[in-house]
Amino acid sequence: MKLKFLSFALFFFNFLLFGQEFTSNNSFSSNINSTEFDAGCLDAGYGQYPLDVFEPICMGIVQDVTPIGWAGEFSKVNVTQGTEYIFSSTVSSDFITIGNNDGNLVLATGLGSVTWTSDFNGTIRFYTHLDSSCASSNTTSRARRVQCGENPPPPINDECENAIALSCGETGVGQTYSANDSGARESNDIFFTYTGNGTPEYVTMSLCGSSFNTFVHVYSDCSLTNEIAFGNYGCDSGDLSSIVSFTSDGLSTYVIVVEGYDDDDFGDFVYELSCMNVPPPPQDCEEFEVLSNWPENSFGAISIHLATDLPIGDNGFTIYGMRPNLLSEIGEIASFVNFEIYEDNVGLPGSLITTRTGTIINYSNSLGIFQGAYQIRNYTVAFDSPLTFNPNTRYWISIDSDAAGWEYSSVYGSLGFADVQRDLQTGLWEPMENPQQNFVFNLICNELGVNDSNLVDFAYYPNPSIDFVNIISPEKIESISIYDLSGKKLMHQDLGLKDPQIEIHHLATGTYIFHVILENGQVETFKIVKK
Predict the structure, then answer these.
(1) Has residue 15 been placed in a domain?
(2) What does residue 385 show for φ and ψ, rounded to 5 degrees?
């Protein structure tokens, strides 16, 4: 009786084993990389991570399926018939199991690394455990990695000396899989150059739509020491690609470096180089202004020192102060605003020329709340003595204040060069991170009187509006200007009236920026939606 039962049990076990193998979604691989077929670990107490199926790029590069895996966890990877894969863990003692998609068939096992050739198209499970006893742990992370295919030949422009020259309007594609890491960040680099055509231009290098998290730099030469602009974002939400703008002097050659944000960021990229002529410097003091386009903006922290440039045209002039848009924590007001004036040094602040102590004459009501913690206000700040600018000269002005930050507009090139910040460790001036922008301010072109310290209540309605906007103020409205969101001035009126009604029926449907100056010098900026 015992012999009959044993024979039946052995038959039933063989039937189950054959049935499992036969009904599996993935056929049994003939090149199992383990000494015992049933020695793998198909149990995963911590489940699957990440939840998406990883699609390897078979170009000879090592890719992280996940950089933060646990022992006792698996990832799913798509594989292609006839392709050899190397699965590995950054913990060399890890026991690796490659299983079928259902997790009921071992395809390969090994310590630290497994080389396996797939004989089907489909999905496998990539397990990591502490050892062959299938122990689990969530105390130490490891990267689960995969490599397949062969590296393509390196791009011809992965060294700065072999950079490809670009022209305005040029588009193209490239890849960084097999490029060298020649400098800048720890990532594979591709080099381009741009040389001006004799006229100053705003130049934009866009990588939007690329396949990986890109980073782009602009340098003055191949030494990669003098950085003109840089950034790793600026495209649409969710797109990790970069877009960077810089100002060409029209004569110099600029080096553009395309790479990944980190050493594991590489892939295919697309690029477009576009150019726009730099408009001539404003001729009148009143034209020196950068408009807010809040809430499509950000701000630089004043504590790290920020500077904006003033390109003076053929007519020099004297200013008596400045009206910057500054940010402070909600409920707080800046108590001091002082200024440093620098000469220009090839598009960056050079030697300090002079300083001015500021007196806050007044400040606007809140122009908006930024990041839920900061109020934006326009401050009218008088200098302790007038400041005269010479014609055909570029100056830089830096603000020192206990305000938290200086608002800047996302409309690049609205005035002069991209604004800059000082590196607190080196003391050197450097570009703000992309997108390159300009701080929001306008100049005070007339001497301020004693009565200019009276901050008045200000209101406007309706918003949205169809035909007109009413402005309510105890002070006379000296002037009003209307701009579109690109910064183009559409209308200007000198009024000298209280509570004026501004007609807007002639404007197209959209959003417009109103810039209002009161008789006492107070400045109000706000948006109106035209229906």
Answers:
(1) no
(2) -155, 150
